[in-house]
Amino acid sequence: MTHALVVQASTLIQSGDIVRAEELLTALVETDGDYALVEVLDDMAPKDLLAVIREYDSSKQSILSLLITPEQFARAVVLDRLYGEVSHDHLRGMFNSVIFREDADAGEFINAIADLEFGYEAIADYLSERAEEIVGIFHAFDTEELSRAEISDHDWKELTWLLRHEHADVYENVLLLLKAQIEAREMAEAAELELEEDGEEEVKVTPVEKEDIDDDEDSAI
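RE: above sequence
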């Protein structure tokens, strides 16, 4: 039955019917219990699981977000890079709805993600919109006496606190990636500004050159 359910869910996902796929999966809990759904999630292709959990609303909890294991979640989120989403809004929604759920040990999720290839990159992508604050203000700020409860936002601040205080190796690697992201953005902005200035210079030079040509023609006549 498990295999048939996985195939059916995968077919729905491939056809774009994510809602029905999630309904099919969560209905299993009512008939066979939580553990049955965990087994099915483990059998699903990570890309299919990702397609479902990308639709999570971080302000609400679903059965899947409550039952997905750290290993299952890690395999899914590292694939999120394939979507090429600049804002990483879906990635943040996934992180916040899963690793900060009431019964979760966020450290287990962090370790599971960091253990995979591109795991550090996935965490850096989650934090990318706050890169300047983390590298500049947060990293320089003395948080030794600041407790997790004081900075708990179930979002980037809490995750950064956890990385810095409980996962130092992961934090240092992610920090390097965030610095590289900042540098890449600055270089792109500088290149764009240079192109704009070159374009403006072209507009200014062209009429002058035309005027010079007309003057030369008048002189020749």
